[in-house]
Amino acid sequence: MVNLNKTDKKECASSRGVFFNTGKGFHLQILDVKHPDYVAVVDPDTAFWALIEKKNIAENIDENSQLLKKYREKSEKFSSEMEDLRFNLALSAVYFNPTERCNLNCNYCYIPESFRKNGRDMSKTEIFNALDILKNHFNKTLPKGRLPQIVFHGSEPMLNRESIFEAMDKFKNDFAFGIQTNGTLLDDESIKFLSSKNISIGLSLDGHISKIADMTRKNWAQKGVSEKVVEVIKKLKGYHNYSVICTVTNNNMAYLTDIVEFFHNLEIPYCMLNPVRCTMPGSRKIKPKDHEFSKYYLSALDRTHQLYKETGRKIVVANFANVLMSILAPSGRRLMCDISPCGGGRCFFAISAKGDAFPCSEFIGLEEFCGGNIFKNSIEDIIKTRPFMMVKERKVENIDPCFRCAIRHFCGAPCPAEAHEMNGDIETTGAFCELYEEQVRYAFRLIADGKEDAYLWDNWDSDMISSFEQK
């Protein structure tokens, strides 16, 4: 029997399973992870899990088994850790939109077209003032020495390049900066500037060939931009503080294996194969079906492992790595979408080019989720407003069928903006329930076979201590 729960980390398993009650105050669920030898046992409330050999299920789920006796001793600690992860993390990051404009008109963008076409830029003075406000707030709320993160986001932040580059220089000792860009405006000078300062760079590329990549990502003249993005990626070779997002739609899902091979050949260190967020009507038109997406997605993950074995070089699919970490070491995750409440308004929030504050970038354009303006309202007041509290109070325990699901803390029923716009209610499921189920089953199979390291960044467990192990 294998168990890899780690201190300060945890989460859950899946909706199709068998519940049983130990009689000692907690419920466990047996989850078929589609492994020939193992099943998973999960406590949905604390995210405790164990992998049990199928031939030994009866003896391990007996009320007097060593497994349950040991778990009973530590269940309160696990519950407390999960409570801290879900409700007690400090606000520490901001997605900062220095402009409403974008030079692209991608099919699935969550920023309204009117903003991207005719929107405003923040002035340099406004950007500096906003960063001063954020600096003063974080100086009061974060431990000394911990730098909050500022990610210049979009629309397309490079349209306000001069101002944000000056801001990165002026506030270099106050924030850890990143930039999420479509890449089309990154020239040699800007690449040198960003890489010399170790700025985190996020790019977007939706395919391995122009014919696929350009179906969704185009400029206003309907011309694809993938060739330019590939040029930029080649120039970033050897720089390890960048990643590439591939947004998965029904246009490119069948090519995910080819895409990860292409990314690996380009020596991209990290990528994301993100399901398209269905917040806006345009994105819903190209949403892939869960059962089809899952098949191609898992095949792509298989291929990353094969490439690692063939070359000794990883390409980490960060959104899957996050699901895997939610099982192995939940508070070691690097993304806060796959948990409830999600990170929106709680660990991070977004600022529009007008200074309006939203729980997350996905809510920009949904005016009812504006919590105020950082030039007019204090951050302390903004994060207590009803729009922010709606997101911070969204829990899987209040969502049907999530409250019955064993993987509810590995999944988190993302995304609240997506759920609100698709279903008219924030306390409903998002768009890709089955995909998360299959990711969790796949993750458990990797753990059972001892393959998990190949899917995670190097030294992911260097500062972790097992809090519960039984062989």
Your description of this structure?
The chain is α/β, with parallel strands linked by helices and 471 residues long. It contains 17 helices and 15 strands. The protein has helices at 57-61, 66-87, 113-118, 124-141, 161-170, 188-196, 210-213, 226-235, 256-265, 281-284, 290-311, 318-328, 379-382, 386-392, 408-411, 416-423, 433-448, and strands at residues 5-6, 17-21, 27-31, 38-43, 48-53, 93-96, 149-152, 176-180, 200-204, 242-248, 270-275, 316-317, 348-351, 357-358, 466-468. Strands 12-11-10-9-8-7-6-13-14 form a nine-stranded mixed sheet. The chain has a four-stranded antiparallel sheet with strand order 2-3-4-5, with helices on both faces. A two-stranded antiparallel ribbon has the order 1-15. A hairpin with a 5-residue loop joins strand 2 (17-21) and strand 3.
Label this structure with key terms.
9-stranded mixed sheet, globular, 471 residues, 17 helices, single chain
Helix share bin: 25-40%
Number of separate helices: 17
Distance between the termini: 5 Å
Side-by-side strand order of the widest sheet? 12-11-10-9-8-7-6-13-14
Molecular shape: globular
Number of strands: 15
Helix-strand layout with pairing:
Layout: E1 5-6, E2 17-21, E3 27-31, E4 38-43, E5 48-53, H1 57-61, H2 66-87, E6 93-96, H3 113-118, H4 124-141, E7 149-152, H5 161-170, E8 176-180, H6 188-196, E9 200-204, H7 210-213, H8 226-235, E10 242-248, H9 256-265, E11 270-275, H10 281-284, H11 290-311, E12 316-317, H12 318-328, E13 348-351, E14 357-358, H13 379-382, H14 386-392, H15 408-411, H16 416-423, H17 433-448, E15 466-468
Parallel strand pairs: 6-7, 6-13, 7-8, 8-9, 9-10, 10-11, 11-12
Antiparallel strand pairs: 1-15, 2-3, 3-4, 4-5, 13-14
Helix pairs in contact: 4-5, 9-11, 11-17, 12-17
